[in-house]
């Protein structure tokens, strides 16, 4: 009899221990417990700590209340300006209503992931390439609103959405690189032209200041020579200024002596009165020269032959 009682007590103790093991539940600090009794949701949500359920009648589901970081797989899309891109993102969310997260959606993590991918493709098609590259803050806000709208009914709050990377085709990368290079070259030319303008103004002022003092130009030339000679890797040809030669010439020129009285050259004597009278007398007129044709005709009339003119010797 006693043995049977002991066996019964041991059996009852074992059954009680098994019941307590099946009924006892531990809810962690970052979790909340949702109880379903015979498939029906209980109103109260079990907080962190020790709690019990009726085995076989009640079922406890634990829901994590921490912020979940979920990467959104890269999505291929075409932007509004017809550029093929590949964009990936990351989403941060948390559960604010454990009962809705259990009852309203089968798997809230999978649902949020699919909604994020769909919204990311939609935001790619509505945006330009420049917005994806430079105006990401606005796109992040739009993407967050698109995901948060259906997630509110699931008891999920979207904390933040960030676009991580935008992958472009190689041809587009080369085109953008050429565009950036051309823009930088344009800015470099503008800056260079501005520098030339400022330098020309300063040089004009310096030339105006040096024009009043020629020695300043020589000193500047000597400073330039010193700067060039410091390199010691080239042959220096130094132009010798003419002003320096004139200065040396004036320095070595002896003192000028008083000029002696110049000796006048002898003046020609005036002709006498008899000489002037002789010059005034008329000279005897010479017979006019007879033309060669007339002379030949006269000789033929008189019968006197004109001696032949000697022929000139041929020159060899």
Task: For this entry, give a set of tags.
single chain; 316 residues; alpha+beta; three-stranded antiparallel sheet; 8 strands; 50% helix; 20% strand; rod-shaped
Main sheet overview: 3 strands, antiparallel
Give the strand order, joined by hyphens, for the main sheet: 3-2-5
Helix/strand order, N-terminal first: HEEEEEEEHHHHEHHHHH
Helix content, binned percent:
40-55%
* Tally of strands: 8
Instruction: Count every helix, treating DSSP H or I runs of 4 or more residues as helices.
Output: 10
Radius of gyration: 61 Å
Bin the strand percentage.
15-25%
- Category from helices, strands and their pairing: alpha+beta
Q: Round the mean pLDDT to the nearest integer and report it.
A: 78
Distance between the termini: 181 Å
Unreliable spans are 287-291, 297-305
Given the C-alpha coordinates, what overall shape results? Answer: rod-shaped
What layout of secondary structure does this protein have?
Layout: H1 2-23, E1 24-27, E2 31-37, E3 40-46, E4 49-52, E5 58-64, E6 68-78, E7 84-95, H2 98-103, H3 108-125, H4 129-134, H5 136-151, E8 156-167, H6 170-212, H7 214-229, H8 242-252, H9 273-280, H10 292-302
Antiparallel strand pairs: 1-4, 2-3, 2-5, 6-7, 7-8
Describe this structure in words.
The protein is α+β, with helices and mostly antiparallel strands and 316 residues long. It has ten helices and eight strands. The chain has helices at residues 2-23, 98-103, 108-125, 129-134, 136-151, 170-212, 214-229, 242-252, 273-280, 292-302; strands spanning 24-27, 31-37, 40-46, 49-52, 58-64, 68-78, 84-95, 156-167. Strands 3-2-5 form a three-stranded antiparallel sheet. A hairpin with a 5-residue loop joins strand 6 (68-78) and strand 7 (84-95). Helix 3 (108-125) crosses helix 5. It is rod-shaped, with a radius of gyration of 61 Å. The model is unreliable at 287-291 and 297-305 (pLDDT under 50).
């Amino acid at each position: 009899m006693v043995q049977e009682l002991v066996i019964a007590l041991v059996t009852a103790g074992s059954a009680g221990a098994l019941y307590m093991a099946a009924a006892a539940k531990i809810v962690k600090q970052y979790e909340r417990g949702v109880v379903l009794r015979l498939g029906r949701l209980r109103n109260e949500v079990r907080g962190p700590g020790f709690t019990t359920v009726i085995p076989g009648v009640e079922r406890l589901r634990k829901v994590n209340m921490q912020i979940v970081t979920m990467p959104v797989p890269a999505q291929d899309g075409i932007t509004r300006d017809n550029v093929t891109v590949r964009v990936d993102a990351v989403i941060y969310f948390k559960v604010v209503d454990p009962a809705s997260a259990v009852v309203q959606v089968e798997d809230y993590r999978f649902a949020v992931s699919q909604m994020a991918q769909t919204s990311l493709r939609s935001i790619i098609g509505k945006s330009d390439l420049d917005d994806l590259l430079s105006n990401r803050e606005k796109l992040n806000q739009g993407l967050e609103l698109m995901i948060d709208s259906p997630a509110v009914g699931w008891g999920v709050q979207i904390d933040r959405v960030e676009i991580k990377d935008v992958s472009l085709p190689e041809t587009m990368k080369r085109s953008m690189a050429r565009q950036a290079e051309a823009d930088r070259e344009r800015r470099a030319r503008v800056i260079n032209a501005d520098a030339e303008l400022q330098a020309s103004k300063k040089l004009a002022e310096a030339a105006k200041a040096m024009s009043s003092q020629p020695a300043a130009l020589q000193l500047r030339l000597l400073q330039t020579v010193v700067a060039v000679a410091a390199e010691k890797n080239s042959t220096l040809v130094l132009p010798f200024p003419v002003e320096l030669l004139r200065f040396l010439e004036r320095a070595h020129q002896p003192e000028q002596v008083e000029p002696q009285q110049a000796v006048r050259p002898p003046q020609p004597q005036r002709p006498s009165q008899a000489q002037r009278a002789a010059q005034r007398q008329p000279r005897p007129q010479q017979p006019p020269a007879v033309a060669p044709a007339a002379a030949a005709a006269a000789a033929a009339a008189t019968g006197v032959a004109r001696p032949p003119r000697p022929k000139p010797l041929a020159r060899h």
